[in-house]
Design a protein that fits this description.
By secondary structure, the chain is an alpha+beta fold. It is built from four helices and four strands. It has helices spanning 2-76, 96-110, 145-148, 154-163; strands at 79-83, 119-126, 129-139, 177-186. The chain has a four-stranded antiparallel sheet with strand order 1-4-3-2. Strand 2 (119-126) and strand 3 (129-139) form a beta hairpin. Mean pLDDT is 90; it is low at 5-16.
Length: 187
């Protein structure tokens, strides 16, 4: 009897270790994909800023960011995107899981946690299928305030109003959570 109990415990420990290792690999892969997205987007934004300032950079978020997300999604066969509590593009609306995580991120920030490393993952079941979900907070940097801050240039405001009539993504301060990168992997 003791032998069977010991064997059952050993199998449980092994299964839990395998599960934890698998999740850590998925977290590491997700962080690498977020970095790929972030690096691609940042490069395009910096190029646009040099060529035409913040008004020009708005076009990157409008056109290039969705292209980058699609390329990375196709490459990895995952859903890769950005979302926020304060949307600029309504197509980036968070689903229920993402909304809950964004609210948790805000609570964690309010409790004093640094935004830069903030991330969260969970294995969820949807329609009888398992998914590994991952989100990484996007901190608001100084350069972000040119299009997402409170005191925007009139040309920036005009372009934002033209492209995003329902824009809510203004009024941020440096260090705020601008939104999050979000990944959904089938398991």
């Amino acid at each position: 009897m003791k032998r069977i109990l010991f064997l059952a415990m050993a199998l449980t420990v092994t299964a839990n270790a395998t599960y934890a290792n698998d999740n850590q690999q998925r977290v590491d892969q997700s962080k690498a994909v977020v970095k790929e997205f972030m690096t691609g987007l940042k490069g395009e934004l910096e190029k646009a800023m040099k060529e035409g300032g913040p008004v020009n950079a708005i076009g990157v978020c409008n056109l290039k960011a969705p292209e980058i997300a699609k390329e990375i999604s196709d490459k990895h066969q995952w859903d890769v995107a950005r979302t926020s509590l304060k949307l600029r593009n309504p197509e980036n609306k968070p689903d229920a899981w993402e909304l809950a995580v964004l609210k948790k991120f805000e609570a964690r920030k309010a409790a004093g946690e640094a935004v830069e490393p903030m991330a969260y993952f969970e294995v969820v079941e949807e329609n009888n299928k398992k998914y590994f979900r991952f989100m990484k907070a996007i901190p608001t940097g100084e350069v972000c305030l040119k299009c997402h801050g409170s005191n925007l240039d009139a040309k920036v405001t005009s372009k934002l109003d033209e492209l995003y009539p329902a824009d809510q993504a203004r009024g941020f301060n440096a260090g705020d959570i601008r939104g999050a990168f979000t990944i959904k992997q089938p398991m």
